[in-house]
Structure formats: structure tokens, C-alpha cells
Amino acid sequence: MLAFLGLGSVDELFAAIPGALRLAGGLDLPEGLPEPDVHARMEELAGANRACGRDLVCFAGGGAYDHEVPAVTRALASRSEFVTSYTPYQPEVAQGVLQAVFEYQTLVARLSGVAVSNASLYDGAAALVEAVNLATAASGRQDVWLSAGVHPSWRDVLATFSRGTGHRLRDVPLVHGATDWGSLAEDRAPGAVVVAYPNYLGCLEDLAAVRAICDRTGALLVVAFDPVCAGILRAPGDWGADIVVGEGQVLGMPLGFGGPYLGLFSCTLEHVRRLPGRLVGETADAEGRRAYVTTLRAREQDIRREKATSNVCTNQTLMAVTAAVQLGWLGTGGLAEVALRSARGAHYCRSQLLSLGGVEALCDAPVVREFALRLPIEAATVVERLADDGFLAGIALRAEYAPDGDGLLVAVTERRTRAEIDAFVAALDKAVR
């Protein structure tokens, strides 16, 4: 390559880079190791982890949950036909993957209650960013009313992106676990109103009231929903949501530090031309047979960059296929059973914990499968103490939710047995005493 360019060295290739921007002294890297030694070192590091299920009984949630992943989901989603195929650019050789993604889109659209779903995004936070981008572009207004009940990490990501996009975010506080929309002075009409259902503290919001705000101001309603709780709750689309986003980890993906996760994104048909990422459609081939293609791709930057509504040009195909397998395996009744078992376990666990001395409910709003407590000591200390007893106790809440550091967010899934819940309650009682 250097000879073809007429250069004598790699240094000449990078000569245009100012010296002040170059790394001085080279990279401080250790000597290489043989592959078996590297593997042994990685196993040593991995052995330092305390894994849920093996070492810890998980009562943590906050966006990532310890749900059962059936053998059928693991077996089908790990087939080489799915694992090795990434982007179905050529429909003539990718009909299987395209159909699987099409089925995923159909299932997510039914869950969310709106007409169309894309082929997925990276995670829930990315989906929220794209939802706000769509809503502000469609409404022509940059103000965004953002409930504090939306996952704090998602709000952090949105705030980062908004520094570049110019969105004006107005955080709306929680009062007794629900968003206090009346606290806002309506000096400027918002382009988007964002609410979580259930919210970060596990509480149910009044979506009808939020829809009324959107109708009065002309804003688009963005709902961040829990796809498992959707098994027993009315779909966000039934409440009038324009855009529905969510985290798909609960649909067949095990817990992982950093993922991979899955961003769910759906919207009404009115906004399909602004839909971010990929969209798989059903058509007919030259011989009249049913076929699948990526469609409406003019909105993506890889086709018409100067007119793009989003710079997302990819999706989480393997995770989307996994979610489709999981939803297809559960069916409507199975998903409802998972949600109901989780809710029953959560309400039993909550009642038992509230019977302990010094433990109180952080908020009184109705909950589904996650709830927040106020402890007599710092929540972070309780989390550390319960880890010694074999429990991942929950999440110590940020100061915005519990200024004294005593707030603990607890989640229960269908995997938790009554014996595990009782043991967890006893361990927490010991920890706070």
C-alpha cells in the first residue's frame, strides 16, 4: 500500500496529523501471550463474577430482569442460520431472516397497540432518543416534557443527544410515585410528552390524563412501556400513544452486563415515513409467491443522507429473532401468566417487607411487579450485606428519588419462589437490624 501511494514509511502516511495530536512514546502494552494463557486469564477474571442464578438470587430490576429463558428459545435463536446472518440487504438470499424479523415486528406492534414496529434498535435508551427525534420533527417543536418516572439512564442518554439536536428537555417530578404534570408552567407547548408505563419506581401512571395534555397542546405522546407487564395491562396504543418504546431484554435474553439488549420501537401509521432504522415488509415475488423485503428505506441516511430523519441504519437482528421466538413460544396466555405470576410475587414480597420494622413504602401508587421501599439505613449498605447472604437485593435509588440514600427498588419475576421470597425478607430484616 505504501509503495502504491509513493510513500516510504507509515510515518509518512500520517504526516498530515499535527504532532500535538499524536501519541508520544507508543502504546504501553504488555507482551503478547499464547492463546491458552489468555484463555486461562479470562477464566480467572470471569470467576470473580457472582452470577445471578448460580451465586445470587435476583431481586433487582430497573430495566433488566431475571426472567426464565426457555430451552426452546435458546435452541432456536442460537441456530447458525440466525447467528451468522446480520443484515438482509439481499432479499433473494435472506428470506428466512426477513420473515423472522417481519414476525417480530408484528408481535411488537400487537404488544404496543400501535400499527407499525421497526426491525428493532440497540436498546431502550436508543429507542427513546429516536422517539423524541420523531416526535419533535413531526410536531415542529423542540420542547420535550419528560417524566422523572422514565428510567434515569435513558434520560441521561437523551440529555446527551439533546445537546446536539437542540431538544429542550423539561423534567417533570414525581409526587407519591406518579408524575406531577400540574407542576409545569405551560409557557411553551411541547412537541413531545414522554411517560413510562409502569414507571421506573414500578408505579402505574394515568395515561388518559397524559393523553389529554397532548390533545390540548398538540404534542405527540411517547410511552416507554414494559413488554412483560403489557401481558396484563392495556396496551399503550389503546391509551392513545403515538410512539411506543421499550427494552426487549425481558423477551428471551439473559441478564448481561452491557447487553446485548434490544430496543423496541412502534408508532402509528401516520408517522411510518419517519420511522427510524429498518422496516421489513411483505410483498410478492415475480412468480406471485409471498416474499419479504426491507421497505421505505428512503428515510435512512444510507440512501438519502441529506433528507434522513434518523442516522440509524441497522438493528439488533439476532435479539429481535430471539424476542420473536420467545413471544411465539409464550403466546398471549403465556405472556399474561408470566406477568401475573410476577405481579403476585411482587405484591406478596412487598407486603412481607412492609411488615418489617423501619421498612416503609417509598410511594403509595399502584404497582405491578416492581416497587420502591424506604429503609432505616442506606440502601447501598443493605445491597452489600444481602450479597453476602446470596441475594442481589435490588437497586439503591438515586438521590432524585430518595435524597437520604435510603431508597431501594425491588423487582420480582415469575422465577422467584415463595421460599426464595421468604428467605429474602428474612435476610433483609437481618441487614437493616
Q: Overall 3D geometry?
A: globular
At CATH level 3, the topology of the largest domain is Aspartate Aminotransferase, domain 2
Question: In angstroms, what is the radius of gyration?
Answer: 24 Å
The pLDDT mean sits at 93
Helix content: 25-40%
Percent of residues in beta strands: 15-25%
Explain what the structure shows.
The structure is a single chain. Helices cover 36% and strands 15% of the residues. It folds into 2 domains: 57-69 and 331-432, Aspartate Aminotransferase, domain 1, CATH 3.90.1150; 71-326, Aspartate Aminotransferase, domain 2 (3-Layer(aba) Sandwich). Helix 6 (95-112) runs parallel beside helix 11 and helix 7 crosses helix 8. It is built from 13 helices and 17 strands. It has helices at 2-5, 10-13, 35-46, 71-77, 80-83, 95-112, 124-139, 152-165, 207-217, 301-304, 317-354, 379-388, 418-432; strands spanning 57-58, 116-117, 143-147, 168-172, 174-175, 178-179, 192-197, 220-225, 243-247, 263-267, 280-284, 290-294, 360-361, 370-374, 391-392, 395-396, 407-411. It is of the alpha/beta class and 433 residues long. The longest helix has 38 residues, at 317-354. Strand 11 (280-284) and strand 12 form a beta hairpin. Strands 2-10-9-8-7-3-4 form a 7-stranded mixed sheet, with helices on both faces. Strands 13-14-17-16 form a 4-stranded antiparallel sheet, covered by helices on one side. It has a two-stranded parallel sheet with strand order 1-15. The chain is globular. The N and C termini lie far apart (70 Å).
